[in-house]
Amino acid sequence: MIPDDVLEVLDSFIISDEKLNEISQKIEEEMVAGLEKKNGSSIAMLPSFVPELPDGSEAGQYAVIDLSGKNLRIMLLTLKGTGCEPDTISNNYILPSTVMKGTGDQLFTFIVNCLHKFLKQFDLLEANLSIGFVFSYPCEHLSIRSARLLWWTKGFDIKDCLQKDVCKLLEDALELNMATTKSMQPKYFEANDSPLSTRAQIKAVMNDTVGQLAAAAHRYGPECTIGVVIGYGCNSSYLEKTERIKKLDSPYPHKEMVVVTEWEEFGANGELEDILTPFDKEIDAASVHQGKQMVDKLTGALYLGEVCRRVLAQLVLDRLLFDGQECEKLDEPDNFPTKYILEILSAADTNKACRRICDELEVPSHSSQDYIIIHEVCHRISLRSASIVAAAIGALLRHLGSSRVKIGVGGALVQFHPTYQGMLKEKLMLVAPLTCRVSTIGKWSLLMRDQLVVRLSLLLWPRNSICKSMEQLANSSMLRMS
Q1: Is 4 helix (H, G, I), strand (E, B) or coil?
Q2: Farthest CA pair distance, the chain
């Protein structure tokens, strides 16, 4: 039994069906406004200038740099053409917090140095590789190789990168690496390292959700027109009719374009104020970007563990957990990471998992009753996350108006959280348009895609003819937004 006083705290994380539908309707309205006018909505609806999705025929070998949250992933992708799964090799690197809040030079030097180590490890320093850059932050795209950073998310705060072309910043760092002598190399290099090959070139830059969409479409076919990533934060992209993107004030030669919603900013104008708990407000106040990225703060893996920590600490203070015995580690920020939520909810023996985590936190005394409460806290906060994501997906389904839609979903939460996908489906049934829910021909599907392949998939497309036309438009300065 969970005490009523504990349930009263946890009930504040429940979003009623009526409220969830209201949120979903507001998100749809902001999406439409975002397509109409630049800076006209809390949801930016950023054009990617990517006109089509892959058909699976692509072949070749590529390197991919994937920057998302605290993780930098460098990958080697070998595409084998129609009917064959790509081969992948990857290494992960953790970004120091000093780099995440330092300077642009520090960030891009770190990226290039990690790329150097990776290519050297696989004897590819002199290979003529095309490089794809998955940059999971809001950008205004002017071409497939040009992305101007609008704002940071996921805990980054590097001010001298704002409003700059991140592809050019990476290219400049590559050029500097090639021009620098061994004696001047940064500390990340070993004594026998050599500069990168001058033949390595950045061929594309795009958002991780676009990669998610491309990978899912590559696997599941043309009905897959939505890609959603639920990881450190939450965002989506989808295939839109060009005629509906009213803020394009110059000709665009293709009938469709992938749009990145950047729906994580919904709530910046107070739209989510009435569902925020005191714990959410504390997290927002302590964040790098106060009042912004509210959807991320309510749904993303970067924040869910911290929400749980603050709830548990309050329950201890109210003498509703651990017999009110003080736990110093639980009072320290970030000491209850989201991985604890995944471990607790995944465990065959919940008591054993909770007992181990309590020991790690040096809780003086804990019991099976405490474990029940901890489990419920993790579940309620996860359910709220899935509910808000479902509201956003439902808004996109209504906006598209298609009777059959497949949704490619990826990210750490759906990949590793044992109940997240089920909760997401359940809540999506409440907010999906009736044409998708009850029609005999209407259908939506959530489709999982392996993350290592998802992020690589940007290099599957656009095909050469499409890239050429996009580059010609960019070079003639035709692609601009009003």
Answers
A1: helix
A2: 69
Sign of the C-alpha dihedral computed for residues 154, 157, 158 and 163 taken in this order: positive
Q: What DSSP line would sit under 30-71, residue for residue?
A: HHHHHHHSTTSSSS--EE--------S--EEEEEEEEEETTE
C-alpha to C-alpha distance for 127 and 142, rounded to whole angstroms = 29
Sequence-distant (≥ 6) Cβ neighbours of residue 477 within 8 angstroms: none
Count CA within 13 A, CB hemisphere, residue 226.
24
DSSP 481: B
Task: Judge contact between 30 and 42, C-beta under 8 A.
Answer: yes
Q: Which residues, other chains included, contact 392 with Cβ-Cβ below 8 Å and sequence gap of 6+?
A: 24, 27, 234, 236, 261, 263, 266, 295
Residue 229 CA, chain-centre distance (Å), reads 5
In 256-349, which ranges are continuous DSSP H helix?
278-286, 294-299, 301-317, 338-346
- Residues across the chain: 482
CB 40 within 8 A of CB 106: no
Spatial distance between the Cα atoms of 82 and 85, rounded to a whole number of angstroms: 9
pLDDT tens readout for residues 189-211: 444 455 555 456 788 888 888 88
Amino acid, res. 70? K
The pTM of this model reads 0.84
| Residue with token string 């590793």 | 416
Rounded distance between C-alpha atoms, residue 306 and residue 333, angstroms: 7
CA distance 195 to 218: 35
Q: Which of 166, 152, 53 is nearest to 108 (CA)?
A: 166
Q: What is the pLDDT of residues 320-366, one digit of tens each?
A: 999 999 999 999 999 999 999 999 999 999 999 999 999 999 999 99
User: Under a CB-based contact definition with an 8 Å cutoff, are residues 421 and 409 in contact?
Assistant: yes
Lowest mean pLDDT among 119-123, 270-274, 298-302: 119-123
Which residue in the block uniquely carries the two structure tokens 């050469």?
464
Instruction: Identify whether 186 is preceded by a cis peptide bond (ω within 30 of 0).
Output: no
**CA pair distance 219, 217, nearest whole angstrom:** 5
Q: Among residues 220, 174, 173, which one has the least CA distance to residue 200? A: 174
